[in-house]
Amino acid sequence: MASFLAALDLTDTGARTNEDIFTGPSQWSPLGRVFGGQVLAQSLLAAIRTTEEDRVVHSMHGYFLRPGDVKLPITFSVDRIHDGRSFSTRRTQAYQNGQPILSMIASFQTQDDGLDHQIEMPADLADPESLPSTAEVLAGVDHQVAKFWAEERPFDLRHLESPIYLSVDGNRVAHQSIWMRAIGRLPDDPNLHRAALAYASDYSILEPIQRRHGISWGTPGIRVASLDHGMWWHRFARVDEWLLYVQESPSASGGRGLSVGRIYTRDGILVASVAQEGMVRVPHAD
């Protein structure tokens, strides 16, 4: 958790051209690539630093351009594209070695009253306390990535269907649901929780594609990479309390798959919606 909070504590370099410049560290991971959710969260926080406090992020759209290197820090440049009466727009570019690894645009809005409805949360679900944690599922697995997922990730993910870390059990369906929560209490800053939700939203969003085709994370030769990520914040929620992530994949073709998701509080409030397209390649995939 300390590494997670340190990664989200960006440094304002004080440099000003036509953009605002921030820097942030990269969290270590066993594969040597920066976790995409980390760069999303950092890019969002950089944009937030340039926006008035009364304007809250409601959407972002990002493209992953290159894999990040965990051995290098990341530089974030924020372009203050537009400030209107109610909305502000920011573009954040994340760089390593002078090359962009992520390009993101986010929109912010002053709080306003308006129409209000939501899709209801699925009913009759198992409580998160009744499901095994990631650490319990992967206990005793002698593999560097498995140990990292079990012991080092700042979020606990609990699958309502069988986890697909080592195998895909049960029906091959293009949908799943996951309870998730930060491991440990986070500061009360609402923007930190919004950024942390973006971070966690990238963990499992492509898994419905894999589940549909019986492809576990342990499948030999599997190659999975996020291509883009869209997110819409509807209502506030703390990420250190249990959230339900309902996910499904409407399509996969051409070495790519699309997944969409909805995130709810435990009492059924729709917090956010997510969409991501990813590269999913595996030898002899059907």
Automatic annotation (TrEMBL):
Keywords: Hydrolase, Lipid metabolism. This is Acyl-CoA thioesterase 2. Belongs to the C/M/P thioester hydrolase family. GO terms for biological process: acyl-CoA metabolic process; fatty acid catabolic process. Residues 168-279 form the Acyl-CoA thioesterase 2 C-terminal domain. Pfam families: 4HBT_3, Acyl_CoA_thio. It comes from the Bacteria. It comes from Naasia lichenicola. It catalyses: a fatty acyl-CoA + H2O = a fatty acid + CoA + H(+). SUPFAM superfamilies: Thioesterase/thiol ester dehydrase-isomerase. One of its GO terms (molecular function) is fatty acyl-CoA hydrolase activity.
